Amino acid sequence: MREIAVVDGLIVDPAEAPADAVRVDASGCVLLPGLVDLHTHLREPGREDAETIETGSRAAARGGWTAVHAMANTNPVSDTAGVVEQVWSRGHEIGLVDVFPVGAVTVGLKGEHLSEMGAMAHSKARVRAFSDDGVCVYDPVIMRRALEYVKTFDGVIIQHAQDLRLTEGSQMHEGDVSAELGLAGWPAVAEESIVVRDALLAGHVGSRVHIQHLSTAGAVDIVRWAKAKGYDVTAEATPHHLNLTHEEARSYDPRFKVNPPLRTHEDVQALREGLADGTIDIIATDHAPHASENKDCEWAAASFGMTGLETAVGAVQAAMVDTGLMTWRDVARVMSEVPARIGRVDHLHGRPIAVGEPANLVLVDPQAKHTVDPATQASRSRNTPFAGRELPGRAVGTFLRGVPTYLDPRFDQTFEGVPA
Ligand SMILES: NC(=O)N[C@@H](CC(=O)O)C(=O)O
Ligand SMILES: [Zn+2]
Ligand SMILES: [Zn+2]
């Protein structure tokens, strides 16, 4: 039981709270620093039918996030200062979550020419994280040059590790289930070979690389080895890869089609262990909304990707907290503090809950067991893999610089008449 007070967006000593302060009784809840997603797809500009910066911001606030890094695979691609500034400004205008645009590594995500990373870094969007996510930066010379370039302004290259040749036409994890279902396989080695190459390149250049959506036991081993070597490699796991396996593909339901694919039970175990022992640094959602026309179709024709912002807390609780592998304190580290540090937004987010710090906070109710219903979500897309499943808890109140951006109806009385 603990009390904190917030005045003008900052955490203050409760003794200094004004007498008429709004009081929130959050008994039974856990207070965490506002969550920071290093991997979100907001789809604006270009696919506003799937998500917009506004609907994605609302989904983020509902999920407990106060900051998201918006991936560059939009149309136009976020590969210039102009586009990243537009995304940043729109996020700021909506004001529900801080939107930090990720810049593309290569022009148009084509993998051929480096984008103007310096111009994006020095724009008002202050970009530090660069990724061609959706596709792998495949050419090792381009990757090397990108690592050298971002070093000059303390940036990070975020890699979608997928060997393009080994995964041509791939539909799901290559294993016994793909063989049975007759779907083309995406082998673990296609991920692992790129992870090891980029760890070596980061070590060689002395720069930072971050590996997205780690999905195989072998990739966890490689990251563990790279860290022991002293290479500046960080990695993320998604809530879906921590909970689901390739067995889901038996339903032929495209909601389970994702890149990289859901893998085996052993891989899920290795990801959980890797996260618990610090090999995997953070959890990132890879929230990938898709319009129904791209998901309500046969498996082979469907797009890769699943939504995640609104289910992350419950899914992480199920995989990591309720299993005894992590405490809520650890969750604050992997979902807020470290992602903020990797994205170099740790002067604003992922701060300690202490006097003088910005009040970016989330209340989590670990007893708020609920069945996931996509129809009640804020995201414009419905492609959650957890639909119809029970999750043990969720975010019930999110505060961005002291302002509530999402509040569970249980707090309606509390905040009555208070402008949000
Ligand atoms: N994860 C996915 O399956 N899809 C992502 C791209 C990506 O993260 O690689 C998307 O943009 O839809
Ligand atoms: Zn990706
Ligand atoms: Zn992604």
UniProtKB/TrEMBL annotation:
Metal-binding recorded as keyword: yes
Binding of substrate, residues: H41, L42, R43, N73, N259, H290, F304, G305
Key words, A-Z: Hydrolase, Metal-binding, Pyrimidine biosynthesis, Zinc
Pathway connected to this protein: Pyrimidine metabolism; UMP biosynthesis via de novo pathway; (S)-dihydroorotate from bicarbonate: step 3/3
Keyword Heme on entry: no
Any one GO MF annotation of this record: zinc ion binding
Catalyzed reactions per annotation: (S)-dihydroorotate + H2O = N-carbamoyl-L-aspartate + H(+)
InterPro entries attached to this UniProt entry: DHOase, DHOase/Allantoinase_Hydrolase, DHOase_cat, Dihydroorotase_CS, Metal-dep_hydrolase_composite, Metal_Hydrolase
List of residues binding Zn(2+) 1: H39, H41, D133, D286
Source organism, top-level taxon: Bacteria
Dihydroorotase catalytic domain residues: 29-216
Region (Disordered): 371-390
Cofactor notes: Binds 2 Zn(2+) ions per subunit.
NCBIfam families for this protein: PRK09357.1-1 (NF006836), pyrC_multi (TIGR00857)
Family label: Belongs to the metallo-dependent hydrolases superfamily. DHOase family. Class I DHOase subfamily.
Name of the molecule in the record: Dihydroorotase
Annotated source species: Demequina capsici
